[in-house]
């Protein structure tokens, strides 16, 4: 994948070396030689990744990283610290300042490109969800006013390790903050992962009986666990496994011997990231739901109904199964608004939509067509069945008053319904037009009735009731 990478280092040869390595892999590279320039370029160029030196004059890499993460316009950009510092305390300080990872000089090419690819994949996915969230916010579908991110308390962690010492150590480290499950057997771990809602999997790459990378691959291939962060525990002799694991989709790693502070910080980083990712995904699905539903009634809206009906009729062309359409309208609804106000009118519409929902089948599609008009689409349904459902709905409205204002006001209402069935090869506009014409006939003939068009079935005629047009 191609991407733009910002390389920040005050030593020009270091910059040139990284620039050459990345350019060979077809990355677009921009450079900065100090912290202030790096902040300016990051804001203007919006790179996909930043390789940041720690030891620089004016402003060190820790401060640069903190400022990048504090600015909402650059906070989403992954930062990898590239430094000669190799102490665990330095890595912890970098991670606490917001860095996504550390690379120690001289930089190993395999580790560099594995880390770059992993972080770029993650950023690409997160950018897509952020864009969808921003679009939904601009459309007024969701609110982005509350974006404070806090650590998930009692997040669930599955530790998969058969090393008794490290298991005991992690149990002590995690016990106060997280719910931890310990499982030495990787086959059993797969069962737990598929059945449990975990926030992080901690997997040792050192196992004498199982292939940990196979488990990592399995996690990434299953729908239930595809987004689960993976933190691996790595011996110095397992670097080849680590590189392969990064390619598979490992999110982060801690080298043995395990430093407790580093493990804590890296764990918290992964859980915070999952929280953010889950929120973006939730907002996306919520925005999709809100985009196709009516905010007052919770029924599908007209746009969704039109698209769904088109798809139904296309399928009907193949299997010749009829599709029925009901259009209904609350009789004299304007009088309700004029006499009692729009708040009562809204309550009436909500109650009307509730009664529609209890009267139609699960496979039927109910939507608010606009104002006090509603549509029900009934796939694979004969006209006689649709007429019977319509008559049942008409009776439910007419026979039971609508209670509003917390039960202090009961309104007696009726509705008119037009019903029709699709013809072979018919388009949605034509079907809805015929149902609408039947509705208007019901209103002209006195309201509180069902009119069926065309009169192709043997229907009874009542006053009020079902009438064949």
Automatic annotation (TrEMBL):
Residues 321-455 form the GGDEF domain. PROSITE patterns: GGDEF, RESPONSE_REGULATORY. It comes from Sneathiella sedimenti. InterPro entries: CheY-like_superfamily (IPR011006), Diguanylate_Cyclase (IPR050469), GGDEF_dom (IPR000160), Nucleotide_cyclase (IPR029787), Rev_trsase/Diguanyl_cyclase (IPR043128), Sig_transdc_resp-reg_receiver (IPR001789). The keyword Phosphoprotein applies. This is diguanylate cyclase. It comes from the Bacteria. Gene3D superfamilies: 3.30.70.270, 3.40.50.2300. The lineage of its organism: Bacteria, Pseudomonadati, Pseudomonadota, Alphaproteobacteria, Sneathiellales. The modification 4-aspartylphosphate is found at residue 53. Its EC number is 2.7.7.65. Keywords: Phosphoprotein. It catalyses: 2 GTP = 3',3'-c-di-GMP + 2 diphosphate. Residues 4-120, 156-271 form the Response regulatory domain. NCBIfam families: GGDEF (TIGR00254), PRK09581.1 (NF007135). CDD domains: GGDEF, REC_D1_PleD-like. It holds the Pfam family GGDEF.
């Amino acid at each position: 994948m191609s991407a733009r990478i910002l390389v920040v280092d005050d030593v020009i040869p270091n910059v040139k070396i990284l620039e050459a390595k990345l350019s060979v892999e077809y990355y677009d590279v921009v450079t900065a030689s100090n912290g202030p320039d790096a902040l300016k370029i990051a804001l203007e160029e919006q790179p996909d990744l930043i390789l940041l030196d720690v030891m620089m004059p004016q402003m060190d890499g820790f401060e640069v990283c903190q400022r990048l993460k504090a600015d909402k316009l650059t906070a989403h950009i992954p930062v990898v610290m590239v430094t000669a510092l190799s102490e665990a305390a330095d890595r912890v300080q970098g991670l606490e300042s917001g860095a996504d990872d550390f690379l120690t000089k001289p930089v190993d090419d395999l580790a560099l490109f594995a880390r770059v690819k992993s972080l770029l994949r993650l950023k690409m996915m997160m950018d897509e969800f952020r864009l969808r969230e921003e679009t939904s916010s601009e459309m007024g579908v969701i609110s982005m006013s509350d974006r404070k991110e806090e650590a998930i308390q009692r997040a669930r962690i599955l530790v998969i390790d058969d090393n008794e010492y490290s298991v005991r150590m992690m149990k002590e480290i995690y016990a106060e903050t997280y719910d931890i499950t310990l499982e030495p057997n990787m086959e059993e771990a797969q069962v737990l992962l598929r059945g449990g809602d975990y926030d992080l999997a901690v997997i040792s790459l050192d196992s004498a009986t199982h292939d940990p990378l196979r488990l990592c691959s399995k996690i990434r291939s299953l729908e239930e666990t595809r987004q689960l962060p993976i933190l691996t525990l790595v011996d110095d002799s397992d670097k080849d496994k680590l590189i392969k694991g990064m390619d598979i989709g490992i999110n982060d790693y801690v080298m043995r011997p395990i430093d407790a502070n580093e493990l804590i910080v890296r764990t918290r980083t992964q859980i915070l990231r999952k929280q953010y990712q889950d929120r973006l995904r939730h907002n996306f699905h919520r925005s999709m739901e809100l985009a196709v539903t009516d905010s007052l009634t919770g029924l599908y809206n007209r746009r969704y109904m039109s698209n769904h009906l088109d798809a139904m009729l296309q399928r009907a062309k193949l299997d010749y199964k009829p599709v029925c359409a009901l259009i209904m309208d609350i009789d004299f609804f304007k009088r309700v608004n004029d006499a009692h106000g729009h708040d009562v009118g809204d309550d009436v519409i909500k109650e009307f939509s509730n009664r529609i929902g209890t009267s139609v089948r699960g496979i039927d599609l109910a939507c608010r067509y606009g104002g006090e008009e509603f549509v029900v689409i009934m796939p694979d349904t004969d006209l006689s069945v649709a007429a019977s459902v319509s008559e049942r709905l008409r009776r439910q409205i007419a026979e039971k008053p609508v209670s509003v204002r917390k039960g202090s006001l009961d309104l007696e209402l009726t509705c008119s319904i037009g019903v029709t069935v699709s013809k072979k090869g018919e388009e949605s506009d034509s079907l809805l037009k015929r149902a609408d014409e039947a509705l208007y006939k019901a209103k002209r003939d006195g309201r509180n009735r069902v009119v069926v068009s065309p009169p192709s079935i043997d229907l009874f005629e009542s006053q009020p009731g079902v009438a064949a047009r």
